[in-house]
Amino acid sequence: MISCASNQVSFEGSQWGGGRGLFSWHLINGLKGLADVEPEDGEVTLTELYDYVKKNVNKASYDAVSKKSRQTPQYCCNTADGMVLSMVNPAEKERLTAQLKVGVSYTPDKADYAANKSVHLGSAMKEAGLEDVYKLFLKALNEGRLIEKGGAHEILNDILQQKATTSELASELKFTLSSKLMTDVTKVINTYLYAGTNNNNYTYDYFMTAAKKLELFQHLADSNYYTPLDVKVNLLFLEGHANWQTYNTNIMRYSLSKIDSAIALKPQAAYLYNIKGLMEMALKQFVAGEKTFRKGIQLAPNWLYPYHNLGSCFSNQGKYDSALVY
């Protein structure tokens, strides 16, 4: 069980336990007994806990304008639904209920304890007569074939054309694929941020594949579930970085313009200055590159890349003593 989908944020605030995470606040209260409702037998099972947490997190993050919840806990492993996670102390549950009635902005009452099960895609697709194509969709997801020919997106489009596919099923399927797309994109960006691979792996296809996945994510995902600015900045970063080793001056300048556009949108993002500096070096703009790398170091003083690349910038100018420092 995790606090939200991969394309959402997890909320924190003083209204939950004086300053806690929305998810953990309801998770702990559920374990203490508030999730023990169906049946109310002194035990909190995994299913009861998830139903309680999802209902209350959804309710607390509900946006009246879009009529959607901005944070939706995720859950897997249905084979463990009946697992007992905690034994309830009735007196403690009663005290907690009384505290919540006066201590937080959201006051639970008996009606709020009701389980609220979400759509179980497997069962719903089977009932709609779409079990076989759904299995193909899952197979493609599990194999990481998301945007290729015959992959999850192509299968999803086939499913969406079926008369048996309700709007609710379509929404859940899009959510499933968009979450996987964002997970893949995040892995690429995090690998870059943590210097998690040899630079030889940073090919055009490596970054452009991630960019294509991010573009598809934009098309599929509900904009209430992500920050459009961050997605736009990361898309510019991926598209720009794809050409970081090109020998074509015009392409390099075009890619640099994408990074400059990203910086204009998010000037405090250190990782943008690192790739900008590399591009300036490639264009023999060493003074500008030095300034850019120093800006990256200023913003992220513990990050490896701008230090290393500033050393390379000095080395390219024949300033070897300065290069050795970095």
Describe this structure in words.
It is built from 14 helices and six strands. The protein has helices at residues 22-34, 46-60, 90-103, 121-127, 131-142, 152-160, 167-193, 204-220, 228-241, 249-265, 270-282, 286-299, 304-316, 320-325; strands at 12-13, 20-21, 43-45, 62-63, 68-69, 84-87. The protein is globular and about 75 Å long. Mean pLDDT is 87; it is low at 105-118. Helix 8 (204-220) packs antiparallel against helix 9 (228-241). Helices cover 59% and strands 5% of the residues. Strands 1-2 form a two-stranded antiparallel sheet. Strands 3-6 form a two-stranded antiparallel sheet. Among the domains are: 12-113, no CATH class; 227-326, Alpha Horseshoe (Serine Threonine Protein Phosphatase 5, Tetratricopeptide repeat), CATH 1.25.40.10. It is mostly helical and 326 residues long.
